[in-house]
Amino acid sequence: xxxxxxxxxxxxxxxxxxxxxxxxxxxxxxxxxxxxxxxxxxxxxxxxxxxxxxxxxxxxxxxxxxxxxxxxxxxxxxxxxxxxxxxxxxxxxxxxxxxxxxxxxxxxxxxxxxxxxxxxxxxxxxxxxxxxxxxxxxxxxxxxxxxxxxxxxxxxxxxxxxxxxxxxxxxxxxxxxxxxxxxxxxxxxxxxxxxxxxxxxxxxxxxxxxxxxxxxxxxxxxxxxxxxxxxxxxxxxxxxxxxxxxxxxxxxxxxxxxxxxxxxxxxxxxxxxxxxxxxxxxxxxxxxxxxxxxxxxxxxxxxxxxxxxxxxxxxxxxxxxxxxxxxxxxxxxxxxxxxxxxxxxxxxxxxxxxxxxxxxxxxxxxxxxxxxxxxxxxxxxxxxxxxxxxxxxxxxxxxxxxxxxxxxxxxxxxxxxxxxxxxxxxxxxxxxxxxxxxxxxxxxxxxxxxxxxxxxxxxxxxxxxxxxxxxxxxxxxxxxxxxxxxxxxxxxxxxxxxxxxxxxxxxxxxxxxxxxxxxxxxxxxxxxxxxxxxxxxxxxxxxxxxxxxxxxxxxxxxxxxxxxxxxxxxxxxxxxxxxxxx
Length: 582
Known about the structure:
- The protein is an alpha+beta fold.
- Helix content is 52%, strand content 12%.
- The chain has 25 helices and 15 strands.
- The strands form four sheets. Strands 6, 7, 8, 9, 10, 11 and 12 form a seven-stranded antiparallel sheet that branches. It has a three-stranded antiparallel sheet with strand order 1-5-4, covered by helices on one side. Strands 13-14-15 form a three-stranded antiparallel sheet.
- The two termini are 48 Å apart.
């Protein structure tokens, strides 16, 4: 009852007034006001748990929050958490005082006119906000609104305690704010993912899709669209057909200006043909139509490149021997999965079968890079049933690593260690599914599995002498990359982490490969003896020595805090990974 009375005293305060109340330490209810502000800060920083009290808090201060500096985040939370699947909420009127408080704020049409605090079924405080509608149609309840309703209270009082339902018009709020809030690329992806699994009516879906389309067209770099393309096409295919059109048109306009993006979107659609574990039949038709629209958007030369790539990879899928003679081509094409380079020929070396469970085929291609230089790129043709899942997880690691390296605190930390952020991109490799169960994997140059280089200190020392790199720089690179990958692999629940599934480059960058076991799944003995993520502390201590606190543990602390800030988008990605893992 004391908490209810304190909540009623704070009802009607704006966010600024609540902040002022919390700043007055000797003011009544200053502690309660401070607790509310702390809860809002936690929701902005890491909105992992979002229950009824969090929804109520967002709804109460939505006008202040949606006009503030973090408006995009709050709008996306509104789209994620207030769809009609949540239904009405209940309040319990146990006393005449409770009944009078509710009746006081009701209009004749049973719409709440001002904030009031009611009691929930479990005794918790529930805030009634302007616009909430009484939807219970139980007899005299329909006649308690407005001035005339006060005369009917004594009839209702005879039936106390009574539980009634209220509905919030969240659809109108989303439609109202969608054109006013400026979404970033990250928020646009979150909104699209939420829309793909929500039950919003079509007008709301159109409003969200229009805001997403505008963000993707004007505030999303090509590199980001390419990084998210695999998830993007799935989310796009799952939203209502009418809402799909504005997003599709924005992507097509962007693709017309970038061959890299157009090629990537083409393969992102094609990897779900002729069947897919995450695309239903009706949805697959719409995805196929989008792929055809991508082909129509391509210029004559780009279309020739796509045809050459399709023929080359189709021949690779159909190849029954290890002879690459049937893979000749006349027109250069964008390399899948390295879309920023063009394949101009094959390396005149026989392909090699790798000694692993699936025996992938290693072969080389001659490539032309963006700057016009030419070189070679080693690729693996890998045949595994879950290759699409591995591609998705690989892209997820790339997104998390980019988020870590783009953070200003992480950049300052790396600078204090004398390291450059670009160093840690070296371990990133890409995967592209070219047919169900068949993928092409980028091979990282100058990288070796951990089983071949132990002890790590001796390996790094020898490579540092050969390259004239300072051993302290190489050691710190190993420590920092180990911390980054520990944090990322822990969040994904990466399993099967034997010493042939982790690698080290000659510059000291540590990274993981082979993402067949995720979300806590593991194999054989690892189920019983391994921890939640692989960390080679003995090797790390021997390599870093006194630098371990800054290079490893401080990096680890930063990494978890940075990744936590985008936990909602990570959840959407893991949600899709879980579907692919079934």
